[in-house]
Task: inverse folding
């Protein structure tokens, strides 16, 4: 069928891929909320990984079997609120952690996990690049020291922060001899997302209601813009004067739009948008532009690098955030197991990749 | 001007970026051909890197000052054909190697460089992923052993192979929970490229002349398709049945097209195209589609991943190959210096990034 110029025998090859051990990688799921459940569901479908323990503090699910909570059959994994006991009894290769967004909330949990000398991958947004703030940098230094002392690796990741607005733009600068400015956009049509997300961005509210909910912190912006900017700047060695984050803004369209769940009349709020800037010499050298609203004309993730050569990259439609986050969290398991001990960020580890085969295949 | 929610002091931060040493990174340029000259020109414009030596066997330039050969002022770097002596006398941090495409041509040169315990980054296409062939895998094993023995790191890279058709698609699979098929396209309008490139792809020839030059090996296909396919497959843990490479094909258009240098009448050859396939279970799970011709309607690099979530990514216009190759070769300098000893490929090292500041800033 094909004219064959070359036909290889693959008995040799990358030696790492030939050390195919059969033991499954053992995982503890720490956090059985929305993302934790999706992640656990995904892990249960993967080859060469098994969930040996589950931790959450929600009294409605503590003591229940994880499989039943997920809507599967019983797994023999009872959700516990005692993380220390769960980790020491199950001896996992890695903890997948999906509880909260800020280090002031999660720091103690990481201390607990690392204290057992166990690797951890977390979707905690601030952990994706804690160096964006002095407080975060202090947490990171302490976690790095503890991880090294205990021989474990800690990574913060996710689709955003963690990939689309930091790791991917950084990677694309790798083919540039010069970089003047980077502009990253994520535009989502909220109508394609779950209803809680549509409500979270204030779709269907009046602009006045939207602004009141912003003031009351009932609606919050995207968490991670500062972290993504600081990760890009540090990767490029740029010393920023400051990181500026605009307030979350309403999106008001000149036409009626609707999702299956929410109607947004002309003049009402269709969603939210927010920009953040890495400023150097008075100029925004890094701009992140995040938009999620019902009726967005196109869904895309784009990276525009004003440099040599110029780079104009677009992923269209945009990467679905829920799938993307659970994917990259699971896919980083082998890189974290293979890494030297310490606290790592996405820019410290080898390029991410999918892990469709037995997870041990990717472990050195 | 901006509403400021957050203003950081960056006295703390990623500790690696604060160890700012002033010594320049010392480079030997090995290979002063077309790419070697462009690369040397680029290095001369960069902060924190200096060229301390230059090696080539071309009798027309041996003994001449590198700066004069490049059209700059004298640099005090005399091009030598004695690589051993040049490396031992100059003690570089890294050799940038740009001589030939195949390991049977370059293997001895790498043995020589690594023998001095010196790091090396090469644009040798086969080195980007030698595991694509048994012969290449044997070279790689020997080079890896030698590099480890001597405490040096060796990397093969480039824009393609090395990034656009391997590292970048691999990186994008990182956000996928499932990957069924990967299709990568690079389409270039040869009219925008240098004239030797236009001639190299046979633009303006009759189809008969084109086919004769293919048979005579006066026109060759893109080097690196097998390497890129094997790198993707190994990253994903896919065991391929085989890698199939189509012959190089002419591109005949139904209209007249022209570059500044070459007119291509309707029915004549406008350039070349070639596809290669990673086959698994009888199906092409990886397809690389390379097209370069005068009159291409659009220039782009695209990655389409048939998976969950599906990824439809495009860089438009395509990344300029000459800039891209010298950029990524220079940008990988700190990763190679920081890496543990051994032979590495792009999938083993941290994500690439631009290096616009003093090169030492990126060295741990």
Result:
């Amino acid at each position: 069928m094909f004219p064959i110029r070359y036909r290889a025998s693959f008995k040799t090859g990358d030696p790492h891929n030939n050390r195919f051990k059969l033991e499954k990688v053992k995982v503890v799921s720490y956090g059985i909320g929305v993302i934790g459940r999706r992640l656990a569901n995904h892990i249960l479908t993967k080859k060469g990984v098994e969930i040996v323990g589950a931790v959450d503090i929600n009294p409605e699910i503590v003591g229940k079997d994880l499989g039943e909570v997920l809507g599967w059959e019983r797994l023999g994994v009872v959700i516990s609120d005692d993380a220390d006991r769960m980790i020491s009894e199950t001896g996992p290769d890695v903890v997948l952690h999906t509880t909260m967004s800020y280090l002031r909330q999660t720091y103690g949990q990481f201390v607990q996990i690392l204290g057992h000398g166990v690797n951890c991958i977390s979707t905690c947004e601030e952990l994706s690049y804690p160096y964006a703030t002095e407080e975060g940098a202090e947490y990171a230094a302490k976690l790095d020291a503890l991880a090294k002392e205990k021989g474990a690796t800690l990574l913060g990741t996710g689709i955003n922060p963690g990939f689309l607005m930091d790791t991917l733009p950084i990677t694309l600068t790798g083919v540039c001899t010069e970089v003047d400015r980077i502009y990253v956009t994520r535009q989502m049509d909220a109508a394609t997302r779950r209803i809680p997300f549509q409500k979270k961005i204030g779709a269907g509210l009046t602009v006045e209601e939207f602004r009141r909910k912003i003031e009351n912190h009932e609606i919050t912006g995207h968490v991670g813009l500062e972290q993504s900017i600081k990760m890009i700047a540090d990767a490029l060695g740029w010393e920023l004067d400051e990181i500026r984050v605009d307030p979350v803004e309403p999106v008001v369209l000149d036409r009626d739009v609707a999702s299956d769940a929410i109607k947004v009349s002309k003049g009402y709020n269709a969603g939210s948008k927010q920009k953040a800037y890495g400023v150097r010499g008075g100029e925004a050298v890094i701009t992140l532009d995040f938009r999620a609203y019902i009726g967005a004309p196109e869904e895309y993730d784009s990276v525009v690098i004003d440099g040599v050569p110029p780079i104009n990259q677009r992923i269209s439609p945009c990467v679905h955030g829920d799938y993307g986050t659970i994917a990259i969290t699971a896919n980083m398991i082998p890189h974290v197991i293979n890494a030297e001990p310490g606290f790592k960020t996405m820019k410290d580890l080898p390029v991410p990749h999918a892990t469709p085969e037995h997870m041990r295949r990717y472990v050195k």
